[in-house]
Amino acid sequence: MKVILQQISAHATRESGLTLVYGIHDFPVGKILIAMTDEKLCWLGITNKVKDLREDWKKAKIIENMTVTAPIALEIAKLWSAGTLDKLSMPVILYGTEFQLKVWEELLKIKPGTTMTYKQIAEKISKPKASRAVGSTISKNAVSIIVPCHRVVHASSGKSNYRWGVLVKEALLNAERKT
């Protein structure tokens, strides 16, 4: 998998002038909504609600075309089930600040079925006091599953919130542990 990191300033907009093609597809733990731009995957949510995509890409032109997104959705489901998402053929583009990109890069290193804490991520990126900022950044991850934000938990409880629901997070981790 090729991950393209696109740095933007904290106040810049990432979506002006972009057209996203999206589709909703079956996935082992429910439905996924994926969006692409210029032959790159830029959004993946464990949802069937287009409003979630529109909230993250307010200024982008958004067009549904499941025929275009079906092959990559099928590949994602197959690779995820095998624990080999790193073999994804389509490039993934992440837009974020320098800090956000460092956090997301660190998430890519977490092995399937394992977890790390927000504090551990902060320490790995040499910002040991930035656990809350790490959490905030993780909540802004636009490419769930591929950038595995579901593998990050609170140090105290081993649990945490998840944009797509705690039950989905647990299902993802349990399925990964069985792979």
Supply database-style keywords.
179 residues; alpha/beta; Double Stranded RNA Binding Domain; Arc Repressor Mutant, subunit A; 2 domains; four-stranded mixed beta sheet; two-stranded parallel ribbon; 8 strands
Report on the structure:
- Helices cover 35% and strands 23% of the residues.
- The chain has helices at 50-56, 66-82, 98-107, 118-124, 131-139, 166-178, and strands spanning 3-7, 19-27, 30-37, 40-45, 61-64, 92-96, 116-117, 152-153.
- The chain has two domains: 3-93, 2-Layer Sandwich (Double Stranded RNA Binding Domain); 98-178, Orthogonal Bundle (Arc Repressor Mutant, subunit A), CATH 1.10.10.10.
- A hairpin with a 2-residue loop joins strand 2 and strand 3.
- The radius of gyration is 15 Å and the shape is globular.
- The longest helix has 17 residues, at 66-82.
- With 179 residues, it is of the alpha/beta class.
- A four-stranded mixed β-sheet has the order 4-3-2-5, sandwiched between helices.
Q: CATH H-level name of the largest domain... which superfamily?
A: Methylated DNA-protein cysteine methyltransferase domain
Task: Quote the distance from N terminus to C terminus.
Answer: 19 Å
The spatial strand order of the largest sheet comes to 4-3-2-5
Could you say which overall geometry the principal axes of the C-alpha atoms support?
A: globular
Number of helical segments with 4 or more residues: 6
Instruction: Label the CATH architecture of the largest domain.
Output: 2-Layer Sandwich
Low-confidence stretches: none
What's the overall average pLDDT, rounded?
A: 89
